[in-house]
Write a structure and sequence with these properties.
single chain; alpha+beta; Uridine Diphospho-n-acetylenolpyruvylglucosamine Reductase, domain 2; Uridine Diphospho-n-acetylenolpyruvylglucosamine Reductase, domain 3; Alpha-Beta Plaits; 4 domains; seven-stranded antiparallel sheet; five-stranded antiparallel sheet
Length: 468
């Protein structure tokens, strides 16, 4: 993209004001900071301006204008991502969809809802609940993340073991491509064997092919009286053994884990231990339990796992409120450590290979990070692990990132041997771009580049993300 002088910038922004309301084009420093970055704090935001279109036609006009003037665009949702995919640090124009936040249609027969891309995840979940249904893709950032951003990153979250990823719930998309074309993809159909399904190219594309403006999503029935158990686990080897036993007998909707070190940070924020015994690791699992039908069975499974030495203590929720409090022990981890500017690795491997990978990485981190605090947590029931290295207060951010990046080479090489992915659900963006070759070989990346060229021939859509 071409750098512009101040007079050229003024002319460019005046041109945008011809089809965007002046109040929806922001150039102030506060907006640049707010909209120019995501939850990643490794990059200094420096956008040219922030545009908040209110209609699909305005988005289309903006993309066409950007092509004519070679303006780089960074699509922006709730900016809750952790890979730098929504960062605008090189004079790009941020395109925020937050004004396009309406639920447009609901079909009770199809159990589907159509909404604009700027719809907040929790607003959609609440709407579904009002209809007696559920949108089950769920995560801690539900109150600020946008549906468009969820789709652009193929968000996963805490209930993938039962409900899958965002991809599994998208039945239709409207997108404005990097060429400025509006595509209406799949139109909410369950079956559609009429050639290439372009919808799936945009799911997980991180805004590099175009801008998602509308989505049609499936809904499902809500969980029937879910119970939550938190279990104390003495070592890593017991985690998957417990999973195998519980999954074989209960209808699990979640199977999460976190370390004692992670729990301590949450406890500092005013929460309480789930039980008196402190253990190196904890499992949080949720299962349907209408009218307490499976309580006795869950307790029997608990006793069996205790006899095997896989766990040493535990608690089962006795009320909806207690279940929410137990969930906070897991969901509040990310917020509780944010002040430490953690360097995050979000990796995945096939579930059957989790124990071997865990053991190898545990030794690696102990050896390479002797002076850093390393926290483990994640969606272990779907093979997704989050590794957070906390920055020492006295260490410069750049130095810290450099040290962590050097060890990431060893970590991802280990992951590659186990057939895993460098990014399970946070995307590639900027932070994982240098390591993409550990998951995608050169031939595959060549096809990815070719696809981008088709949809974004001038390279205006989120340039520099995923690959250069």
């Amino acid at each position: 993209m071409t750098m512009h002088s101040s007079s050229e910038t003024t002319a460019l922004l005046d041109g945008i004001r011809a089809f965007i309301e002046p109040a929806s084009l922001r150039t102030d420093a506060d907006s640049a900071l707010l909209y120019g970055r995501d939850w990643t704090r490794l990059y200094q935001p420096n956008p040219l301006a922030v545009v908040l279109p209110g209609t699909i036609e305005q988005v289309r006009q903006l993309v066409c204008y950007a092509n004519d003037h070679r303006l780089a665009l960074v699509p922006s949702g709730g900016r809750t991502g952790l890979s730098g995919a929504a960062v605008a640090s090189h004079g790009e124009l941020v395109v925020s969809l937050e004004r396009m936040n309406r639920i447009l249609d609901f079909d009770a027969v199809d159990r589907s809802v159509t909404c604009q891309a700027g719809t907040v995840t929790e607003a959609l979940q609440n709407f579904a609940r009002e209809q007696g249904l559920s949108y089950p893709v769920d995560f801690a950032s539900r109150g600020s993340s946008h549906i468009g951003g969820n789709i652009a990153t193929n968000a996963g979250g805490i209930k993938v073991v039962r409900y899958g990823l965002t991809r599994d719930w998208v039945t239709g998309l409207k997108v404005v491509t990097g060429r400025g074309d509006l595509l209406d993809l799949n139109r909410g159909l369950i079956k559609n064997a009429s050639g290439y399904d372009l919808r799936h190219l945009f799911i997980g594309s991180e805004g590099t092919l175009g801008i998602i403006v509308e989505a049609t999503l499936k809904l499902t029935r809500p969980l029937h009286e879910p119970n939550v158990m938190v279990l104390g686990v003495p070592d890593l080897n017991g985690l998957m053994a417990i999973y195998g036993v519980l999954r074989g007998a209960l209808e699990l909707s979640a199977f999460e884990f976190f370390s004692e070190l992670a729990l301590r940070h949450v406890l500092k924020k005013g929460l309480h231990r789930p039980f008196e015994t402190a253990t190196p690791y904890y499992v949080l699992t949720e299962f349907e339990n209408p009218a307490g039908r499976f309580t006795d069975q869950a307790l029997q499974l608990f006793e069996h796992c205790t006899e095997q030495g896989w766990l040493v203590d535990g608690v089962i929720s006795q009320s909806e409120q207690q279940a929410k409090e137990l969930w906070r022990l897991r969901e509040d981890i990310s917020e509780s450590i944010a002040e430490h500017q953690p360097y995050k690795n979000d990796i995945s491997v096939r579930i059957s290979r989790v124990p071997a990978l865990l053991e190898e990485i545990d030794h690696l981190l102990a050896r390479e990070y002797p002076n850093f605090e390393v926290l483990w947590y994640g969606h272990i029931g779907d093979g997704n692990l989050h590794i957070n290295i906390l920055k020492p207060a006295e260490m410069a951010t750049a130095t810290f990132a450099e040290n962590c990046g050097a060890v990431s080479e060893h970590l991802f090489a280990t992951l590659q041997r186990h057939g895993g992915s460098i990014s399970a659900e946070h995307g590639v963006g900027l932070t994982k771009k240098p390591y993409l070759h550990y998951t995608r070989d050169a031939t595959e990346v060549g096809y990815l580049r070719a696809l981008k060229q088709v949809f974004d021939p001038n390279g205006i859509m989120n340039p520099g993300k995923i690959f250069d």
